[in-house]
């Protein structure tokens, strides 16, 4: 692939990223894959079906990414998740804010893109507010607050914060071998938990879990393998094509939504180029739209009450600010980040779950008080 002209290879990477994200949106729409929904099902009904689907997606993502590390195709250190400095407070604070916000907004960023594809107009508000808040937290007013507060506190680990790198530094062993061992063991344990109950053996659980997990792995391959240049012809340095972070990327929903809004608003600015993150936003929406139309589940929805509108506004803000602060969302950290076995990703994921649980308690309290 590296023999292709640079514009052709870049276009190929963008097309592949769109195809993978289209598959994500289609599968999520077909199976109702939703992290917030999974947590809410457990909280309100004790139903672990969608939680097992989500866990299976994590297992596939972990297994696939670390298999590629073992093969020498990718390295965790080339992602934003495996930096030597662990911003533990940012991961926890951002994760709590994101988790609380996604409950108020009836779903995370990816879920709202999927809902938008099925005709839910409330999701437009969430997606736009999330994107604006994300941009503000990347390089605006809340970015100043973030950099001067939670981002100041962290731990320098010496090695990358992914578990294989930490173990390799401690044991003097090979990182690829440890990635295969640790990734395989964690994936096997999760799959065993999924299969332990009858609801974990359902076809839709496996379609959603394996399908969504596979899209995370495929996106890593597109960005980290297909789009990798050992020596960029202009800079003569290693590069990853069409990524906003200049590192290899997989699916994530907060920063890419912000970059998509930025690209749309400043389209005539020649410095604004398409990235894999921007096309993934369009791809997820398109995949959900096609499946919703094909299955006749597309129908228009809107706000019925002012309180509902306010909840979605606040939820969008919390997700935009929290997702950037935590370096990702339920997809960016909960699937892509966790697949690298990053300590920060595990912290962020735990905080997101805790934040969602607190929000569900809050809404239950509000319903009881108002009722």
List the helices and strands and how they pair.
Layout: H1 6-31, H2 35-45, H3 49-70, E1 85-86, H4 88-104, H5 109-117, H6 122-139, H7 141-147, E2 155-156, H8 163-171, H9 175-195, H10 203-226, E3 228-229, E4 239-240, H11 254-265, H12 276-294, H13 306-325, H14 332-339, H15 343-370
Antiparallel strand pairs: 1-2, 3-4
Helix pairs in contact: 1-5, 1-10, 1-12, 2-3, 2-15, 3-9, 3-10, 3-14, 4-13, 4-15, 5-6, 5-12, 6-7, 6-11, 6-13, 8-9, 11-12, 14-15
Question: Briefly, what is this?
Answer:
By secondary structure, this protein is mainly α. It is built from 15 helices and four strands.
- Cα-atom Rg, whole angstroms? 20 Å
Give the number of domains: 1
SS-based class: mainly alpha
Q: What oligomeric state do these chains adopt?
A: single chain
Biggest beta sheet attributes: 2 strands, antiparallel
Helix content: 55-70%
Unreliably modeled segments: none
The counted number of beta strands is 4
Gross morphology is: globular
Strand order, sheet with most strands: 1-2
Total count of helical runs of at least 4 residues = 15
The separation of the N and C termini measures: 62 Å
Q: What sequence of helices (H) and strands (E) makes up the elements? A: HHHEHHHHEHHHEEHHHHH
Average predicted local confidence, pLDDT: 95
- Roughly what fraction of the amino acids lie in strands? under 5%
Name the descriptors:
single chain; 371 residues; mainly alpha; two-stranded antiparallel ribbon; 15 helices
